[in-house]
Amino acid sequence: MSALVQNPHHDLIGLLLGEHAAILALFRNLEQRLPEMGLREMQGAGHSVEALLMAHAIEEDALLFHSLPEKRDSVKKTLDAMFGEHNEQRRLLEELRSAKTTQTVRKLLGQVIELTREHFAVEERVLFDVARKALGKRRLEELGTEFARRRGLSTL
To answer: What is the DSSP code string of 102-121?
Structure first.
């Protein structure tokens, strides 16, 4: 058994929270720089944001969202909202990829950042508590181990 599973601080929710913190730090830095950035630099930042958010969404969908029981109506409604926000992120990022003006790229990056902040806040206030209760410590640790394996993270 890997060290990651044995460490309760490395459950899936803890790992997702760590990614949230890193993504939000990137956003703060990006927002400070956006006013001075040119089109090419913003487009490059958009590609990086897209890669990061889509990797996060894929793992979150597969490992957390699909592990939660949808028997309770409140869980189903929350999951539907979360999936919807992931789809909205994808739509905005696709639009960003084809945007050709500085003003449009800056606006779309701002929208992606704001949507993601709201999404993370709901997860952290509501969904993660639901997941802790529904899945339990052991299952969340197993999912954390799978997350680490899929991401190529060290289990030491």
So the answer is: HHHHHHHHHHHHHHHHHHHH
Residues 6+ apart with CB under 8 A from 78: 122, 126, 127, 130
CA 60 to CA 144: how far, in whole Å?
Answer: 11
Q: Which residue has the tokens 């945007």?
A: 99
Over 50: is that where the pLDDT of 3 sits?
A: no
Q: What is the pLDDT of residue 155?
A: 59
How far apart (Å, rounded) are the C-alpha atoms in residues 70 and 139?
Answer: 17
What angle (nearest 5°) sits at the alpha carbon of residue 49, between those of residues 124 and 16?
30
**End-to-end C-alpha distance for the chain, whole angstroms:** 11
In 3D, which of 5, 20, 19 has the Cα closest to residue 139?
5
CA atoms within 13 A on the CB side of 32: 6
Alpha helix positions (H), 34-127: 39-59, 73-98, 102-122
Say if pTM beats, i.e. exceeds, 0.85: yes
